[in-house]
Write a structure and sequence with these properties.
microtubule motor activity; Kinesin family protein-like protein; alpha+beta; binds adenosine-5'-triphosphate; 23 helices; Kinesin; 22 strands; motor protein; eleven-stranded mixed sheet; about 725 residues; microtubule binding; ATP-binding
């Protein structure tokens, strides 16, 4: 099943009433209750327009109620069936994301989130009532923001935050934030109090484009736990209000806002790269390059996913709107697997005649259903019935069956391979969770009527037990990780962390570290011939170096080059139809933000990037140590004559002094062979390279497509690698 993408065009704001409205629903859709096609003029030729098709398009007059009823309320049903759901708002700054997700205070103005919670509580009460109290529903939530690529708990006051934020980890295929608080809240009123208080903690500021601009991505995670006599079913609804991309030529942002803005733009850029990589079916999706993409895990998570694309109707947003539309057009093709969370059994139903000992405790096992067919628990009974009658089994919910996704999904043991689980920790005991303890004992319920008694092979049961143990170990590892922040942290480690934080802060203070990263990314894009992306990166770097004429020239040259290329393409395509269809829109460059295919390298004069490819300083801190191998010298590049002392650093220069000029020593050749093999395992085995660095190296190489690393200088230029790392890698090789 694909990500559902709907567009919402916001109404004109007071200060826009005299402005041109350029984004509308398509006239051809005028009879439809909910249009699906949106129209926007071609910025280069107003006589023609682009059409984009989505699952639904909501025009300016769409109400909050309409958006919720048509798009979100149905997800609540799935949530209670055990599916995770995710709704996120995407769009340029000031287009109405927060209005859509949070909304105003009046009943009519309430956004998706308060309505979602209201719906969840209503359904909970109904389930409890209909089951005569046999099913209890508990709702709890966590709420956090990603601000400047750091995760902060919004239930914590800002002054209590650790500057470095909360760590995130992968656990059983899901990304989790370690140390996040989870607040139980059982009524809408409680929710509103918590949510309002937390929103005060969220980072917002006034910018020229939005008086209450969100400076962070906000993620609300609502956990719904349904407990019956014998099982516990947990599912989660995520509601995400992404920060909006900003064109800093229009925002007049000050330095602090610029730093925030760059972090926002960078994460959205990574998100766009992920979406592009997914749509091109590339092996490597750069999720890990930003915390937001890691947490959103678009296309990786197994939930029902809805994206609300917020759009401003006015001309001043024209290019940004086209860029968002192109992004959304790609997103709608992303497939997500709908995988139901497995309920966990919390008591013994009937002994199988055998008992098992886990961790020393002897428990009678609950009969389990076969692994096959356990995937969709709610429909298993119906399937069995259908099978008996020879019909095709029915599914209450479609399970996406793309081969690639399935194999990925099947790698997530905690979600998919498991059938019914034995949950010793949930076994009812005197000291169990209060709601559990307050329930009648098993003995008292022995006449409670027939229970589900599926059969399961001994081998499957053993497999489940091992799996459960593994899960417990993973959970423990996660808890241990969380405890690292507790006093157990050694003084030395704490000092190192503090130093590191200080260094990052110092770098951020001079506002350059982030800028340099953008320049490096720009260069990488340019090397690959991706001029549009390179330009975007240079533009994002520009606020950090506003008086750098070279950078200005570089951007001007690139713009010129892109324009020339477009003109040449237009000339070539002059016979093509003037109004492209929605599908062609996404493939054709319709704005500066649209993707452009790499061009032959000799099509345009090369732009000299050298001044804009410095490595992070930390990579050069210990340059002097490099000369430990007699045959090998690392020298700093000679600083280029420059008026400013803060001139960017040059790339490191390596010399193989034992080698004939133009050749490498066997050691260097061997190292380059390993790197060019793109084999993460081999690269990871190099000295000083961990999993993260190895992934980053392979990621760079994959992005550079067929490019090979031909020398140590190029290797040192790769993202995350520096002179010292290269030296370590090389010196760690025993082979010559
Ligand atoms: N559908 C709508 N009806 C009425 N007003 C709206 C609507 N959508 C947005 N607005 C108004 O537009 C302004 C900007 O909206 P909002 O703050 O939600 O934008 P945003 O996309 O969240 O911006 P940012 O990314 O900067 O946080 C607000 O004043 C909001 O009240």
């Amino acid at each position: 099943m694909s990500v559902r993408v709907v567009a919402r065009i916001r109404p004109l704001l007071k200060n826009e009433l005299d402005k041109d409205t350029i984004v509308t629903t398509d006239e051809a859709d005028s009879g439809k209750a909910i249009p699906t096609v949106l129209r926007i003029p071609n910025p280069k030729n107003e006589a023609e327009s682009f059409r984009f098709q989505f699952n639904a398009v909501y025009d300016q007059d769409a109400t909050q109620q309409q958006i919720f009823d048509s798009e979100v309320s149905s997800t609540v049903k799935h949530l209670f069936k055990g599916f995770d759901t995710c709704v996120f708002a995407y769009g340029v700054t000031g287009t109405g994301k927060t209005h859509t997700m949070r909304g105003g205070k009046s009943l009519a103005d309430r956004g998706v989130i308060p309505r979602l919670l209201s719906n969840i509580y209503r359904r909970s009460r109904k389930i409890e009532k209909d089951s005569g109290g046999a099913t209890q529903v508990e709702v709890s939530m966590s709420y956090y923001e990603i601000y400047c690529d750091r995760v902060y708990d919004l239930f914590e006051a800002p002054e209590k935050r650790t500057p470095s934020g909360l760590p995130i980890r992968d656990n059983g295929g899901k990304t989790v934030v370690v140390g996040l608080s989870e607040k139980p809240c059982s009524t809408l009123k409680e929710f509103e109090q918590l949510y309002d208080q937390a929103n005060i903690n969220r980072s917002t500021s006034a910018t020229k484009l939005n008086a209450h601009s969100s400076r962070s991505h906000a993620i609300l995670c609502v956990k719904v736990t349904q407990t019956t006599e014998d099982k516990v079913l947990v599912s989660r609804a995520s509601a995400i209000d992404l920060a909006g991309s900003e064109d800093n030529r229009r925002t007049d942002n000050n330095k602090e806002r610029l730093i925030e803005s760059s972090a926002i733009n960078k994460s959205l850029f990574v998100l766009a790269q992920c979406v592009e990589a997914i749509s091109k079916k590339q092996n490597r999706i750069p999720y890990r390059e930003s915390k937001m993409t890691r947490i959103l895990s678009l296309g990786q998570n197994n939930g029902l996913t809805l994206m609300i694309l917020n759009l401003a109707p006015v001309r001043s947003y024209h290019l940004d709107t086209l860029s968002s539309l192109n992004f959304a057009n790609r997103t709608k093709k992303i497939e997500v697997a709908e995988v139901e969370n497995e309920p966990q059994y919390r008591n013994i139903v009937k002994p199988l005649g055998a008992t098992a000992s886990i961790g020393g405790a002897t428990i009678a096992r609950q009969p389990l259903r076969p692994l096959a067919g356990a995937h969709n628990a709610n429909v298993a009974d119906k399937e069995a019935e259908k099978k008996k009658s020879g019909d095709k089994p029915v599914k209450a919910f479609s399970v996406y069956s793309d081969r690639k996704t399935v194999s990925r999904v099947s790698n997530l043991p905690s979600q998919n391979q498991a059938a019914r689980r034995i949950e010793p920790s949930h076994k009812r005991t005197a000291d169990s969770h209060s709601t559990i303890a307050s329930r009648p004992t098993k003995a008292a319920r022995s006449d409670a009527g027939p229970r589900y008694e599926p059969a399961m092979s001994k081998a499957s049961i053993e497999a489940l037990i091992s799996q459960r143990i593994e899960e417990k170990l993973a959970e423990k590892a996660l808890q241990d990780a969380a405890n690292v922040t507790a006093p157990a942290l050694s003084a030395e480690l704490q000092k190192r962390l503090d130093d590191l934080e200080q260094r990052i802060e110092i770098k951020e203070e001079d506002g350059k570290a982030q800028g340099l990263q953008f320049l490096l990314m720009a260069k990488q894009h340019q090397v690959r011939g991706e001029d549009v992306s390179a330009l975007r990166m240079y533009q994002m770097a520009f606020p950090f170096f506003p008086s750098n004429d070279k950078l200005k020239n570089k951007m001007r040259n690139l713009e010129e080059r892109i324009r020339t290329k477009r003109e040449m393409e237009n000339d070539r395509n002059s016979d093509a139809p003037m109004i492209p269809s929605s599908t062609t829109v996404s493939q054709k460059p319709s704005s500066l933000m649209a993707p452009i295919r790499p061009k032959p390298s000799n099509a345009y004069p090369a732009v000299d990037d050298d001044d804009f490819a410095p490595l992070p300083e930390s990579d050069h801190d210990d340059d002097d140590d490099y000369a430990s191998d007699a045959s090998f010298r690392f020298r700093k590049g000679k600083p280029k004559a420059s008026k400013k002392s803060a001139a960017p650093k040059r790339l490191p220069v390596f010399r193989d002094e034992d080698a004939t000029p133009g050749e490498h020593t066997p050691r260097t050749s061997h190292l380059l062979r390993i790197i060019n093999s793109k084999d993460v395992t081999k690269i990871k085995a190099l000295k000083g390279v961990g999993t993260k660095k190895a992934d980053a190296i392979v990621g760079c190489l994959v992005e550079m497509e067929d490019a090979e690393v031909r020398d140590l200088e190029s290797l040192a230029m790769l993202k995350g690698v520096g002179g010292k790392t290269v030296e370590n890698m090389r010196m760690g090789l025993s082979v010559v």
